[in-house]
Sequence to fold (534 residues):
Amino acid sequence: MSSASTASGDTIPEGQVVLSHLVNRLLQREGGNVPVERVALRVSDYADLSDQDAADLIDEGADAGIYTLDRSSGGNATITGVSPQGTEPKVITDAFGELQQDTDVDFRVISVVTDSINDALYDAGYDDFASLADASIDDIASLTSTLTESRAENLLKEARTHVPVGLRLAKTAATYYGQRIDPDTERAAARVTDLSLVTDSVGEPLYRSEGWEPDDERGMYVSDIGRNAGSPVTTGLHLLDDPDYPSVPKTATHPDAAYDALPVDDNGEVVPPAVPIDPRFQVPLDELIAKKLARGLVPIRVVGPRGSGKNYLIKYLCHKTNRGYQSIDVDRATEPEDLFGPLVPDGDVIVPRNGAVKQGLLNGDTIVINEFPVMQAGAAIALHRLLNEGTLLVKSHGELVEPHPSARMVITMNPPTREYRDSEPMNSATRGRFRSFEQPYIQEIEEEVETLDRQANSNDPVVDRPTLKKIVQFAHQTRENESWPTLSTRNLTILCEHIEDGVYPKAAVKGVLWGVAEPNQYPEDAYETLNDYL
Fold:
């Protein structure tokens, strides 16, 4: 058997080269460790080695520092680390795909690219996937007699998947950085907004601006997502006429988009939430909440597990109706003045300074208070008059505030279950003032797959749909087993981000499971079930 040379001049058996690179790929794909027995059984697919030969090479490699082994008390060995030897053999690359750091560009890895198309692309000046992905269909079509417009479109779409993610991230970061350039200094700068000075009000109802009747469907939110997609439902929640009002949630393509911008699909439309059905009312949640918002300043409570999309749904409704969105996180130290504003000296007098809640009510925003029950009782009680009568009495300011007619109030909280030990049950006197809804995780697998697909693959394909479906199916398993860490919809978007960064899907699932595990939970307990999916 031939051998490979190392920088020091030593030679490594070819079998060890193949074996070490096979282990490297398996460790990446499996997410951290792989049994020696599994490697020994698989190596014959790639090299002329028996399982015993492979086991012997692993033992020799462990002594030489190539492999890191973890041996159990029962004698079973698991490989937890490897230093790949030499250049990755073609047989491994063909089986597992190109490595991200590979510099040799072969456009024939794109399904529609033949030898003649590959040569034509090089002749046209394309020497890497990044330059090819930036081309237009007109640039590519007709480079050869077989390269039609439809084939060119598929070629460019697939080329984007081969652009190193680092290059895409750099372009995105540069775009965001450019939005923060100070025109006077031509340098990027932070932005600090004093909410008490933002006194502009939200827009007027669109029906007034357009001269329509108040019940004209064109001027209200129509629930046409989820179960209502085939039979849209009018909700009565009026659209406002100023989409440029500062606190209207922005799309990812907006010039002032920030990291919290709403994702868009290939058509530039905001990706809608995966809308669950309230388990008791059996009505889509966006329809229920929109109809309550249409009633004016009636307080709404949304209860749901972490990452189920509570805030995203409210942001989506605000974006679709051009309403201001103010999300406020509270804790046990929150006091009334944190909500309404303190008294501050102004020369020889003491004057009130508006806090986020008070100013948002004056401006007509939709105020969302997250984890409301953890606040001190005094802070919650200070809101009772607002919740009951629609007017805010700020005792320290000596003011009775009648909010802007477009102002709304929503609170969110986790259910007071074992998983959310820090969630306090709400005071019954306060709880009874709210219209309460439950937002569970999405029950329909296909619906959650569709939502994730539009978010993860909206710009460039990141994870294929069959793999995405397997990940969602496993996530649903975690939500049914209290002893496992729970994968929320938000966790799955992070998981897709890891895959985009070059992590294998199974490893990404394990990494996110580990990241969300409580101290009394062991993600390893779920790995055997994960093997059934990935």
